[in-house]
């Protein structure tokens, strides 16, 4: 009898979970970009299937929202910023209701999209102290728009997609971090040579992570012209727009609230190194059409995730 009762309880729980998943999918439908975009692991079909179910579960993400955020730290090296100045009308539909693009240019008809490629330095909870050096240092890429909260004017970045080279990190962010729509890279590499040349490769394999290949070299001085010139008076103004963005903004329309993730970076603009070279990316092309990329490098960043708070939309 006890076995029958246990089996009946298991069936009931499974049925309740399926019902809850269907209900949550109605209020949290699949989107083209963001945390509810389609998620596919780059592994083979049979290995990927259970991971895809976990990453796509609305119920697990609902439970993850109950987990208190933890301060994370990473000593990041050689952050490559690849940027595009785009017609604001092309990017505006990608911004969720409650947020608005930070528009640039004399007429306010342009906006910037940026993707970053960098390697973490022992990413982990700050409370681990020196033991954090035992943790891995995966390569990550963030794809972001520059936005502000329409009601308060609070500025930050909104992530269209993020990707990382390790499955545990991707699933953790997917389930626990509202603002990080994390995918898994099939292959990821970043080589920095002695003369400063940077080779960056983001390969999604069979998965849904964004792709990019870049071969870049440092410039001896900051340029006076480039694709950024249509939106900014000079190079320093461009850096002032793209670099000091220490806040990620996303929304939960089913709760009528803004999610604000505070990040401490503190990057001095004078440390940014202009880069020249080639960038190829189908993911970027789908977003920016024929806009030309321009890039720069930040050699070191002391990253710290401070916490997550909420504001009414």
SSE layout:
Blueprint: H1 2-27, H2 45-56, H3 58-64, E1 72-87, H4 88-91, E2 99-101, E3 110-119, E4 124-125, E5 139-149, E6 155-164, H5 167-176, E7 182-184, E8 187-192, E9 198-203, E10 212-218, H6 235-242, E11 247-252, E12 257-264, E13 273-280, H7 282-288, E14 293-312
Parallel strand pairs: 6-7
Antiparallel strand pairs: 1-3, 1-4, 1-14, 2-5, 3-5, 5-6, 8-9, 9-10, 10-13, 11-12, 12-14, 13-14
Would you summarize the structure shown here?
The chain is α+β, with helices and mostly antiparallel strands.
Amount of helix? 10-25%
Number of strands: 14
Order of helices and strands: HHHEHEEEEEHEEEEHEEEHE
Content of β-strand = 35-45%
Oligomer: single chain
Rg calc: 21 Å
What is the tally of helical segments?
7
The assigned structural class equals alpha+beta
| Poorly predicted runs of 5 or more residues | 3-9
Keywords:
313 residues, alpha+beta, 14-stranded mixed β-sheet, 7 helices, disordered N terminus
Describe the structure.
The chain is of the alpha+beta class and 313 residues long. Helices cover 24% and strands 37% of the residues. The protein has helices at residues 2-27, 45-56, 58-64, 88-91, 167-176, 235-242, 282-288; strands at 72-87, 99-101, 110-119, 124-125, 139-149, 155-164, 182-184, 187-192, 198-203, 212-218, 247-252, 257-264, 273-280, 293-312. Strands 1, 2, 3, 4, 5, 6, 7, 8, 9, 10, 11, 12, 13 and 14 form a 14-stranded mixed beta sheet that branches. A hairpin with a 4-residue loop joins strand 11 (247-252) and strand 12 (257-264). It starts with a helix and ends with a strand. Mean pLDDT is 91; it is low at 3-9.
